[in-house]
Amino acid sequence: MNQFNISLIIPTYNCLNELKVLLNSVLHQSYKPNEIIIVDSSNHDEIKDYLDSLQNDIPVFYIRSSKEYPGEKRNEGAKAASFNWLAFLDVGTVPRQDWLERNIYLAKKNKTNVVFGCTKYRAITRTQKLLRAATFGRVGHETSPGTLVSLDIFNQSGGFIEGIRAGDDQEWRLQLRDVCSKCVMPADPSLDYCSLPNTFFGMQRKYFIYYLHSARVRAQKKIRDIYLCAFLVFSMLLLTKWNYLIGGWDNNPLFIPNITKIFALSLIVVLFIYIIISRAFEVVGRFNLLNWFAKVLLFTVVSLTVYKWNTKVIDWVEDSIFFVPHITKIYILLLFIFSFFYRGVYIPLKLGINYKFIFPGNWIAVGLIGLSFDLLKTPGIMLGIILAPFQKQLSKL
Fold first, then answer.
1. What is the pTM for the complete model shown?
2. Residues 148, 85: contact at Cβ < 8 Å?
3. CA distance 362 to 357
4. pLDDT at site 157
5. In this structure, are residues 56 and 27 in contact, taking their beta carbons and an 8 Å threshold?
6. Among 112-116, 208-212, 272-276, 311-315, which stretch is predicted with the lowest mean pLDDT?
């Protein structure tokens, strides 16, 4: 393993106590890095003074940074690195004792230059356990903290996007996949995240900020998708009003009978097929803007179709076999029941939450929390897309 000379990069900001915990874990690794680079933007000298007094066998270098966000500070650390392999950690995320040793083993075994971090989220308080059940569960997740990457591949990826508060780490992992043909992740968690919020509002804020910024990143890189989404909306508005726009006369050669019904049915079928296909071939962890828009549009079209079913689709023919009394109420009730069960039971069980924690009553709280996060997703993404051209405004949020 001697050829793996590693520079460990840690961005910090006013987090001395958390950094002490992290460094203690690093100093007890079964395979230690060759140097530790702390890139700090704190508004005081506590971290610098602590590092100056620290005595250990691993050189620790302190960089005072003017950058605001973790990704920018990681880039600074990479530029200052002395060795040909980089490893990244964040305060709040604690590596297990064999973290580096396992990553090096995987890099050798798979002959790859990228091994992602695998993080498990820890919960202590009841609130944290409910939040974990509604979000990350008890399984390992691919993360940028814990990642081991060669300096050459890091440079080819372009590093982390500057000026982004959240979502830059996910985008960076996608960029790594573009330049490295084989990226791997440990089968079992190698890090523990110990800083889940202790309030529901704190987690909701983190979710909103994440979707806001990650959508902004994808929007900047997927302008074509945005144009296509806008075209779909324009087409829907135009075609549903087509007969009215041409005068509404049946003898007009451009008149299309039942155009709204035909368009709605066709759109539902096309969007459903697109979502299935894109889901099957979607890259792990990738935020697909067009896929998200297709889901939102499909939900909107189906909801409007249900709402207009009796009045527009079958013209209030009550003796028709297609007439459904109270169809809107039934649809809303079924939608709520399905969503509640999906977020409160299915997702937690899928993510490794013990059924004894979910039942008999916690599934209700977990379902409500999960639904609240889902409700934040759409406005967060939409606002991120709208604000994408205005980098400074978004960075301040």
1. 0.74
2. yes
3. 7
4. 92
5. yes
6. 311-315
- Whether 358 shows a pLDDT value over 80: the answer reads yes
- Whether 184 and 240 map to the same domain: the answer is no
Q: At 77, phi and psi to the nearest 5?
A: -65, -40
What is the DSSP code string of 46-99? HHHHHHHH---SS-EEEEE----SHHHHHHHHHHH--SSEEEE--TTEEE-TTH
176 and 237 in a single domain? The answer is: no
Residue 204 lies in a domain: no
Look up residue 114 and give its two tokens: 């990228």
**Number of structural domains, the chain?**
2
**pLDDT confidence of 163, banded at 50, 70, 90?**
confident
Amino acid in the structure at residue 112 = T
Instruction: Between 289 and 90, name the one with better pLDDT.
Output: 90
Q: Identify the domain containing residue 276 by its residue range.
A: 219-395
Cis amide prior to 59 (ω within 30 degrees): no
**Cβ neighbourhood burial of 385 (10 Å; 0-12, 13-18, 19+):** buried
Task: For residue 229, give Cα distances in angstroms to 98, 271, 289.
Answer: 46, 12, 9
Residue 1 included in any domain: no
What's the pLDDT tens digit per position in 235-283? 666 666 676 666 656 667 777 776 666 766 776 677 667 666 665 555 4
Residues 285 and 250 in one domain: yes
Instruction: Give the SS3 label for residue 191.
Output: strand
Q: What is the C-alpha separation between 36 and 77, in angstroms, rounded?
A: 9
Within a domain: residue 208?
Answer: no
Least confident span in 7-11, 76-80, 203-207: 203-207
**Cβ contacts of 231 within 8 Å, gap of 6 or more:** none
Question: Are residues 224 and 182 located together in one domain of the fold?
Answer: no
Residue 213 lies in a domain: no
- Report the C-alpha gap between 142 and 118 in whole angstroms: 5
Q: Which residues contact 311 (CB under 8 A, 6 or more apart)?
A: none
d(CA 65, CA 196): 26
Look at residue 394 in the predicted model and tell me its pLDDT.
Answer: 42
* Pairwise CA distance, residues 134 & 342, whole Å: 10
